[in-house]
Structures are given as C-alpha cells and as structure tokens.
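Entry:
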Amino acid sequence: MTPIDQPTTAPEDEAFRRYRASGAPDDLARVFDATAPRLAVLAAHLVREAADAEDLVQQTFLVALRDAASWDGRRPVVAWLGGILRHRALDLLRRERTRATTGDEALAATASDAPSPLDAAADEELWNRVLAAIESIDGESRQVLALRLVHGLEPSAIAHALGRNPSTVRMQLMRGLEKLRLLVPASAVLLTALFADTASGLASVRARCSRSPRGSPRRRQQRARRHDLHRVDVARRRDRRRGVLGTSSSEPSP
C-alpha cells in the first residue's frame, strides 16, 4: 500500500471511523470538538452574518451524519467537512443572489462559484493565519484562545484545566477575541459571536447535532436497503398483476 492509499491516522479521523461503524455519540463528539473550531473560522470567512456561519457549521455536521459512508478514509475528515461547508456556503450565496437577480443574470452570477482545487489550500492558509495570529497575542489570553479555537474546549473546561475562575476565563477569551478580530479582519465580528460563551455559537451547535438521530450508519444503510428491496418487490408484484390483467383483457371472448 502506497502512502497516498493509507488511511489517515489523526485522532478525529479514527473517531469518525469508529462513529461510522457503531454510531457512538462519544466518537461524534470527539470529531466535533476537534474540527468545529476550524470549520467555524472557515464559515466566518465565507459569510457575513454570525447566524449564517453558525448554521453552516450545523448543516455541515448534519450532512456528515447522513453521508458518513461517503467519507474517503485516505483524506482527513476535517478536509472533507470543509468541502461540505464550502458547498453549503455556495448554496446560501446562490439563494441570496437569486433573490436579487433572475434568469441569465443569476446563472452568470453563480457560474464562477464552483469550488476549485485550490480551495483546500486556501482553507489551510486561512487556518494557519489564525494560528499565527493567536501566537502573536501576548498575555494569558493567548493560552485561553488556543484552548478554545484550536482544541475546541468550552470556557468552563478551560477554567478547570487552567485552575482559573470561569468568569476570568470568559473575560480573557473576550479580550483575546477582540485582539484576534484586528489580526484576522476577514472573520471580524463573527469570531466573537461564534466562540464566546453564550447560548448561541458552537456550544449550541454541538448540542443540536448531538440530538440528531445517531443510529449506526451501517444499520441506517441496512434499513434503507431493505426499504429499497421492498419497493422493488412491490413494483414487481404490481407489474405481474398488470401483465395478468393485460393478458386476460386481450384474450378473445368465448
């Protein structure tokens, strides 16, 4: 097996493999905590409203739950999720443009929106800019920001890990995010909304995704396959009945 054919071994990739096999919510939570901050930064870069960025992250994970079997294990799961998020962002932009344009104008406006092979590199570059910006921030806010954005810890968990008062951590997080806004202007206001300790943001997205149906992807595929086989069987019986009726109606009357 060549290196390019080998499965990825990052912790979040292994967790997603386990989730695909068993549907274990703990494994899904590990994937979310490891990848959601990076996806949120990408979403904040692609859209203008915090609510849209939050919704993009949630949609990305819901699509991943539905299409878990389509993930190529040779590709990092965060890159696969980033591709899903980009497509969802393009769908959002198309809808907005369609409301403002019609016919050929709408088609022309979206013709150049298809993701290019450089998108993954651009996503990586954006993430590296955020990491560099975090490293450039002085004081205790840098450590809090790194734990929040890079490692996906909630403010309460950061406070426990650092032995600090939760209110102190929240204050340091807000100060750090304000500094980060000046260093990464493309994500400006959205970063504060997504990563602050509020009822919205990533914490609420995580909670909503955790309430989604979690049955084993393999079992969902089996149920879908049985449903398809049932539909085929019903169609065949219907065709047989039609054939019988057709034959009887074509026979000459005695």
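Residues 58 and 205 are 6 Å apart (CA to CA).
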